[in-house]
Every structure is written in C-alpha cells, then in structure tokens.
Write a structure and sequence with these properties.
By secondary structure, the protein is α/β, with parallel strands linked by helices. It folds into two domains: 196 residues, 3-Layer(aba) Sandwich (Rossmann fold); 147 residues, Phosphofructokinase domain (Rossmann fold), CATH 3.40.50.460. Helices cover 35% and strands 20% of the residues. It contains eleven helices and 15 strands. The strands form four sheets. It has a seven-stranded mixed beta sheet with strand order 3-2-1-6-7-14-15, sandwiched between helices. Helix 1 runs parallel beside helix 9, helix 5 crosses helix 6 and helix 7 packs across helix 8. The longest helix has 22 residues. The chain is globular and about 70 Å long. The termini are far apart.
Length: 381
C-alpha cells in the first residue's frame, strides 16, 4: 500500500511541470498518500533534498496550475549512472552514484518515484527500474520526441508561442518586403517547426527529417515574388541541416555520457544570409530560444498535464510500476519503459540522437507533412 511518493522534474523546463505536480499531489491526497518534491531533478535523489508538497491553504502545490517553470526545480546534466564529480584538486571524474540514490530512496521510505521528463529522463527512470526502484514516468518536452506517446506536455505551449511570433513577423515582412526567418527549438525532431508553420501561415518549413536544398527554398521565394508577394516567412528547426551537410552546433559541454552534450543553434542566421544572397530580398533571422519554454501553459497543456498527473497516480495506486503514461490513439494509456528506451538498453547509455535512441521523429506519412504540402508550404525538398 502506498504511503509516500516522490516527484522529480528533470531536463529543460517547460510550461506544465507544475500542472502535473499539482495533479499528482491532489490525486494522492484524495487517497491519503504523502507527496514530496525531489529538488532539482535527479540531483535531489543524491543529495536527499526532499520537500513536502500539499494543496493546503499555504501548501507548496497550491495556486501553481498557471505557473511556468517547476516549483521543485529541474536539472539538465544529472545522469546518476555516470555522475560528474569535481575533486579537491580540481580534476573531474565520473562515478556511478545510482546505488547511493537508491539507498536514499529506501531510507526515506518512498514507495514510488514519478519522473517528469523527456527521453533522457525516462532512460534513467528505466535504468532505476531495472535496479528495483518503483518508477512511473510522465512524458515532458517541448520537442515532442518521446517515443510511444502521441504528445508530450509542454509541446502545445511551445507551438503556440512560435505561432504568435510568426503572426508578428508576418507584419514586419510584408511591410518591409523582407524574408523573415524564425529559428525554433526541437532538437532532432521537427514537430515544433512543422506545426507552428501550419498554424502561423509560414511559406517554408525546414525540419531535421528533411535535409533542405537552399536553391529550392530560394525558388519558392522567387515564385512568390512573381505573383506580387515580395516577402516570405521561413521557419527553421534548430536541428535542420542542408542536403549533404551537417547540423549546426552552437557549442558542446562535457557532462559525460547519458546526457545530450550538444547545444544546437545558429542555422537560422545561416539560412537568412543565404536567402538574402539568392533572392535579393533583405532577410532577417529571429531565434526564439527560451521564450518557447517559459511562461504560463496553454489550456490544452493544462488539461493534458492534469490527465497525465492523475493517470500516473492511478497507476501507482494499482502498483503498475515501470510504466510511462502516454496518449495512444487519442486516449490515456501506459507503456513499459522498456518499450520507450527501445534499443538503448545499456545502463547509463547515451541519450539523444544516436542509433540506439528511440526518439519520435516526423515521418513523411504524418498528417502534418501532408497538410503542409497541400497548403503549399515548401519543406526544402
């Protein structure tokens, strides 16, 4: 019987973290179960940094439904199976600290840990599950690339922010006869770029799944000029790459294996410069960046988060551990974390864009691709 559960938020922040936390806590309280926030992602498990969460008058989980970010913090570099430790002499070493985290879980008496995060977070959740920890995952990421679910929380809000940016860029482009480029996040998947392009009426959408031919992009702009449209709006996913070329990397960090050490960015500037040279129109790039991650969640995300949080708690009560809450065929469901990680089964193995990773990417058969093409949106091919 459940008595005490822990909630951790891990990876990049999204709008909706707090809505999920609230849903888990409210459902738990209905069943007399105590909830604790594990502070700053997996780091909190190692440091035994746990804080009680309640929805009482002055409780930490009260009034957080519309609040962006995470009231329990998050971390983007805490792989406990290969944890970065700075020694007294300043040198760095990596250690497997998972057993220490498990010891802390047992000592504090957690009956279940809820992991709110993307593919890397759920990979660690699966690894802890293989070592006997009772875990239930909730799929989070603006990139919408977690396997086995149709949508992740935080994604809809990110798309909505990108759409609003496109609405504003349209007016500037049309007024000054310019090519307006918007670079959006998404890592190695083009969901944000594609859906924002459709919602925001873009003329061109460049996504990681379709290497683009800049000449064909320029031709689309030239064709618009011929019918009197002396401006164009281009959306570029940060992971987009030219035909025969590579992804644009802004910088790299060294946090060991198990986390994505590559920071993407800069392709928007490259595309804008090339299109200005090829079309003769002035081109300007806007990189939306962290604007997509923060702020209040949309109504869609608030409802999705509430559904995910309550379902996660239901699974825990039913003792269905080692699962990820998902939306499948439009309905709430759950799948094994083993299915989520796919071939990436080695403990502590690299997450991200590798042959082993099981990321959900855009396919050419997806309705969004067909819709974009039917609307005349050029996809760079």
């Amino acid at each position: 019987m459940l008595r005490k559960v822990g909630i951790l938020a891990n990876g990049g922040d999204v709008s909706g973290f707090n809505a999920v936390i609230r849903a888990i806590v409210k459902t738990a309280e209905h069943h007399g179960i105590e909830c604790y926030g594990i502070m700053d992602g997996y780091n909190g498990l190692l440091k035994k940094d746990f804080e009680r969460l309640t929805t009482s008058q002055d409780g930490e989980a009260t009034g957080i439904l519309p609040k962006g970010g995470s009231i329990i913090g998050s971390s983007t570099n805490s792989n406990l199976f290969n944890y970065k430790i700075e020694k007294e002499d300043g040198t760095i070493e990596y250690k497997d600290m998972s057993d220490k985290a498990i010891e802390n879980i047992k000592e504090f008496g957690f009956d279940c840990i809820f992991t709110l995060g993307g593919d890397g977070t759920q990979k660690s959740a699966r690894d802890f599950s293989t070592k006997g920890v009772k875990v239930i995952g909730v799929p989070k990421t603006i990139d919408n690339d977690v396997a086995c679910t149709e949508i992740t929380f935080g994604y809809n809000t990110a798309v909505s922010v990108a759409m609003e940016a496109l609405d504003r860029l349209h007016t500037t482009g049309e007024t000054h006869h310019r090519v307006m480029v918007l670079e959006v996040m998404g890592r190695y998947a083009g969901w944000i770029a594609l859906e924002a392009s459709i919602a925001g009426g873009a003329d061109i959408a460049l996504i990681p799944e379709i290497p683009y031919d800049i000449q064909k992009v320029a031709q689309k702009i030239e064709n618009r000029k011929k019918v009197g449209k002396n401006f164009s709006v281009v959306v570029v996913a940060e992971g987009a790459k030219p035909l025969g070329g590579e992804i644009t990397i802004k910088n790299k960090r060294d946090n060991g294996i198990g986390v994505d050490n590559t920071k993407l960015g800069g392709v928007g500037e490259i595309v804008a410069k090339q299109l200005e040279e090829l079309t003769g129109l002035e081109a300007r790039n806007t990189t939306l960046g962290y604007m997509q991650r923060g702020g209040t969640p949309t109504a869609f995300d608030r409802v999705l988060c509430s559904k995910y949080g309550t379902k996660a708690m239901e699974l825990a009560i039913q003792e269905k551990f080692g699962q990820l809450v998902v939306i499948k065929n439009g309905r709430l469901d759950s799948v094994s974390l083993e299915d989520v990680v796919g071939k990436n089964t080695k403990i502590g193995a690299v997450s991200g864009n590798t042959e082993e990773s099981n990321l959900r990417k855009v396919t050419m058969e997806d309705d969004l691709v067909k819709t974009a093409r039917n609307l005349g949106i050029n996809l760079g091919d």
